[in-house]
Amino acid sequence: MKTRGNNSTRRAGVGACALVTVALVLSSFGGAMAQPGNDELKSEISKYTSNLPFAMTPIKLPEIPERVFNIISYGAVGDGATMNTVAFMKTIEACAEAGGGTVLVPPGLWLTGPIELKSNINFHVSRGAFILFSRNHADYPIVKSPTRGFVVASPVYGFNLKNVAITGKGLLDGSGITWRPVKKAKVTASMWKELTQSGGVVTDDGKIWWPSEEAANGGQYIRELKERKDKKKLTADDFLPARDFMRPILLLLSRCQNVLVDGITLQNSPAFAMYPDRCEDVVVRDVKVNNEYWAQNGDGIDIASSKNVLVYKCTVTAGDDGICMKSSRDKSGNAALKDIVIADCVVYHAHGGFVIGSNTDGGMENISVRNCDYVGTDIGLRFKSARGRGGLVKNIFVSNIYMKDIVNEAILFDTYYEEADRDTAVQPITDKTPIFDGFHLDSIFCDGARQAVHVAGLPEMPIRNVSLSNSVIRAEKGFVSDYASGFNLTNVRILPSKGDVFSLSNTGDFKIIKGYCPLNTTVYMSLQGRTTGGIIITGTDLAPAKQKIIYSSGVDKNAVTIE
Question: Would you give the distance in Å from CA 461 to the centre of its chain?
Answer without folding.
Answer: 25
